[in-house]
């Protein structure tokens, strides 16, 4: 909260990169044209994808509750949104978070760390070393992220006896691998939905992520290393509500060498599964109801 009598401020951290129209109006280059309750994390040239830090009480007191709630409700589940409590005022907390925009790999290359995306933030808490996590979260009293069921989960607190890590944070190859593997199901889900734009896939966010994760497990267990095979399998897993992943002949299908042959086989099997599901539904709806006495 931002009252002068209070030492605790409540903030929303919004991943602007996951949003489109609802966030565009808040990323004007001039600070004078932005609400005083909002602070972008990135510099001017990257405002369109910058995380947005919002002082909740300042937005409310400024009569901008509707504008703030537009951002809050932009996505369901709200994986674009986490909640922070801190003793730091808005500008100081934004400055602290700017220290973690980039991470440095062992080869010296810099990469953007999208910690405002809850899909990244949740695994990040275990990927970072204790000292790195403490450096990130030290001025935070509480940090809560949304999960795929749209529930809030509390991030681990800083370990105060840890010595702070230098910034930008340096990632080992193992840290990169662990984080990338945690995010891989989301990446393939996004690719499938982009390729099949306009199609509404079955399941909610939790179910879809579970099917994508299971598809990846089956793909790896078969020793397949071609990402295009995994992309096709993820699509089929979504379309069949995960049913295709329970087929006994899936390992033999994943052993096919030619991508075109695999795609044809997997789509044929997915179509058979869907046709069978529809027939079963029709049988249930056409059968007479059992009399109850």
From TrEMBL:
It comes from the Bacteria. Residues 11-134 form the DUF4123 domain. This is DUF4123 domain-containing protein. It comes from Massilia horti.
């Amino acid at each position: 909260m931002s009252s002068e009598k209070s030492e605790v401020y409540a903030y929303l951290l919004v991943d602007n990169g996951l949003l489109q129209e609802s966030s565009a109006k808040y990323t004007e280059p001039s600070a004078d044209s932005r609400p005083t309750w909002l602070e972008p994390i990135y510099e001017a040239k990257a405002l369109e994808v910058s995380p947005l830090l919002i002082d909740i009480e300042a937005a409310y007191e400024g009569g901008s509750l509707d504008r703030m709630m537009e951002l809050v409700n932009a996505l369901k589940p709200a994986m674009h949104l986490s909640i922070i409590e801190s003793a730091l005022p808005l500008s100081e907390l934004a400055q602290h978070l700017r220290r973690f925009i980039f991470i440095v790999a062992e080869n010296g290359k810099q990469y953007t760390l999208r910690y405002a995306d809850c899909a990244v933030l949740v695994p990040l808490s275990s990927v970072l070393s204790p000292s790195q996590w403490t450096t990130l979260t030290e001025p935070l009293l509480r940090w809560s992220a949304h999960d795929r069921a749209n529930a809030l989960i509390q991030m681990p607190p800083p370990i105060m006896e840890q010595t702070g890590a230098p910034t930008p944070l340096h990632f080992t190859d193992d840290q990169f691998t662990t984080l990338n593997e945690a995010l891989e199901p989301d990446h393939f889900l996004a690719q499938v939905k982009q390729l099949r734009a306009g199609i509404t896939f079955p399941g909610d966010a939790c179910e879809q992520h579970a099917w994508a994760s299971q598809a990846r497990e089956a793909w790896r267990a078969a020793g397949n290393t071609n990402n295009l095979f995994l992309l096709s399998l993820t699509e089929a897993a979504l379309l069949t509500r995960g049913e295709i992943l329970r087929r006994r002949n899936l390992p033999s299908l994943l052993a096919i060498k030619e991508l075109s042959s695999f795609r044809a086989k997997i789509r044929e099997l997915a179509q058979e599964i869907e046709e069978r599901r529809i027939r079963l539904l029709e049988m249930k709806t056409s059968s007479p109801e059992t009399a109850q006495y």
